[in-house]
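RECORD TYPE: inverse folding
INPUT: C-alpha cells
STRUCTURE:
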C-alpha cells in the first residue's frame, strides 16, 4: 500500500490549491480516506474524510465550507480542493487510508500514510 501526495506549494491568501493523492497497491474505493494536516509543533488534524465507496463525506470545522474531497476511481486517486486559503492553513498535508467501511476521524486509526506535501499561504 502506497500513497503519494502532490500539488502543494506557495499561494497567496485567498488563493486555491488542489492536492492529489495517488494510491498504489490497493483500490481507493475499498478504503476510507482522510486528508490531514500538521502544523509545526502541533498534532495532525483531519480536514476532510471520505468513507469506502464514497458513500459518506464529512468535514470538521477546519475544512468545512472551503475544502472539498473527491475521488477518481479510474485514476485510483483522491483529491483535496482547497479554496480561500489563509495563512493559518499553512501546514504539511497528508492523505491516509484505512480498511474501513465508515469514516474514521482520528489520525491514529489510519495505518497508511503518504509522505506529505507542503502548503504555504502568505498574506
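DESIGNED SEQUENCE:
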Amino acid at each position: 500500500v502506497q500513497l503519494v501526495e502532490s500539488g502543494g506549494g506557495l499561494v497567496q491568501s485567498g488563493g486555491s490549491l488542489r492536492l492529489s493523492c495517488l494510491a498504489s497497491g490497493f483500490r481507493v474505493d475499498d478504503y476510507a480516506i482522510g486528508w490531514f494536516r500538521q502544523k509545526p509543533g502541533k498534532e495532525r488534524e483531519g480536514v476532510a474524510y471520505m468513507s469506502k465507496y464514497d458513500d459518506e463525506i464529512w468535514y470538521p470545522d477546519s475544512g468545512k465550507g472551503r475544502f472539498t474531497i473527491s475521488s477518481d476511481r479510474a485514476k485510483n486517486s483522491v483529491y483535496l480542493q482547497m479554496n480561500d486559503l489563509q495563512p493559518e492553513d499553512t501546514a504539511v498535508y497528508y492523505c491516509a487510508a484505512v480498511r474501513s467501511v465508515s469514516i474514521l476521524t482520528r489520525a491514529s486509526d489510519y495505518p497508511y500514510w503518504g509522505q506529505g506535501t507542503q502548503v504555504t499561504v502568505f498574506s
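NOTES: The chain has a mean pLDDT of 96.
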